[in-house]
């Protein structure tokens, strides 16, 4: 079993992506042995009413009959009117998690409204996904945001009394703090057993070696993700089978065991 915790459908407004539909992304995933994908509709991030994108995704998901199991994640904007109703509707439609995008929706994870959405998701049995960013900041369109989700915001959310299953995605896992997540994020995450980081940038030139992350974050807090279609799926998969420090048990935890509860 392989769970890809970071995939998307829909249109990215700043450049053409190689696949934009659910059938296209699941076809790619199936060819690479992936059994489950956590998937979000990009359109929902940019619509004034995120639910228009979530409902688009629901219609696509409802008519999907492929072999790869899709774990749909709804985009929620707690700055928008009646967002509480939106979360409930998404739960009823079969979404298994919500994604928060404060950089695109003009709020901070430190705000009470963000913590309220975080808590409500947990109360409804939904996990929360936080995408730190989508593309390298040096390559972004001038109309895109020019910062990533910072450590302070994530720490503030993790320090709250709410123990919601959380996936932190698409960031440098970098305890040194030179770029990406600083050590205080790791410290807060390790206090809980349900905070996970996907390893998309874990062996980047800024993020350090994957072996270091196995030590700093432990396999219990790492999950597999590809960030497709922004990035190719193959390098992440190859990485999982070529890193000597990974034992079979570690690999299974990262591939699926750490998140087995969200697919049942």
Q: What is the gyration radius calculated from CA atoms?
A: 17 Å
Helical amount: 25-40%
In whole angstroms, the N-to-C terminal distance is 13 Å
Share in β-strands: 15-25%
Q: How many H/I helical runs?
A: 11
Biggest β-sheet: strands ordered side by side in the sheet:
1-2-3-4-5-6-7-8
Provide the domain count. 1
How would the global form be characterised?
globular
- The CATH superfamily bears the name Metal-dependent hydrolases
Low-confidence stretches: none
CATH fold topology: TIM Barrel
CATH architecture: Alpha-Beta Barrel
SS-based class? alpha/beta
Highest-level CATH class: Alpha Beta
How would you explain this protein's 3D organization?
The chain is built from eleven helices and eight strands. The chain is an alpha/beta fold and 264 residues long. It has one domain (3-263): Metal-dependent hydrolases (TIM Barrel, Alpha-Beta Barrel), CATH 3.20.20. Strands 1-2-3-4-5-6-7-8 form an eight-stranded parallel sheet. α7 (151-158) runs parallel beside α8. It is globular.
Summarize the helices and strands and which ones pair or pack.
Layout: E1 3-9, H1 22-31, E2 36-41, H2 42-46, H3 50-62, E3 69-76, H4 83-93, E4 97-100, H5 102-105, H6 112-123, E5 127-131, H7 151-158, E6 166-169, H8 183-189, E7 195-198, H9 210-217, E8 222-223, H10 234-242, H11 248-255
């Amino acid at each position: 079993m392989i769970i890809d915790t970071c995939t998307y459908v829909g249109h990215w407004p700043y450049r053409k992506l190689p696949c934009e539909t659910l059938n296209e992304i699941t076809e790619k995933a199936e060819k690479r042995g992936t059994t489950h994908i956590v998937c979000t509709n990009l359109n929902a991030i940019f619509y004034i009413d995120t639910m228009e994108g979530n409902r688009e995704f629901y219609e696509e998901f409802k008519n999907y009959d492929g072999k790869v199991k899709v774990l749909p994640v709804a985009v929620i904007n707690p700055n928008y009117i009646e967002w509480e109703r939106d979360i409930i509707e998404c739960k009823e439609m079969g979404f298994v998690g919500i994604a928060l995008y404060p950089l695109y929706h003009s709020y901070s994870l430190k705000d009470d409204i963000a913590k309220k959405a975080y808590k409500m998701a947990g109360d409804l049995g939904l996990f929360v996904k936080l995408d730190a960013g989508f593309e390298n900041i040096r390559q972004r369109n001038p109309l895109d945001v020019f910062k990533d989700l910072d450590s302070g915001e994530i720490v503030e959310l993790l320090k709250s009394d709410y123990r919601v299953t959380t996936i932190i995605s698409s960031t440098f896992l970098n305890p040194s703090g030179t770029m990406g997540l600083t050590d205080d994020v790791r410290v807060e995450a390790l206090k809980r057993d349900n905070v996970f980081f996907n390893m998309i940038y874990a062996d980047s030139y800024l993020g350090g070696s994957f072996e270091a992350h196995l030590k700093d974050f432990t396999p219990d807090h790492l999950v597999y993700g590809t960030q497709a279609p922004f990035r190719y799926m193959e390098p992440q998969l190859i990485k999982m089978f070529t890193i000597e420090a990974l034992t079979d048990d570690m690999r299974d935890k990262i591939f699926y065991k750490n998140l087995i509860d969200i697919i049942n």
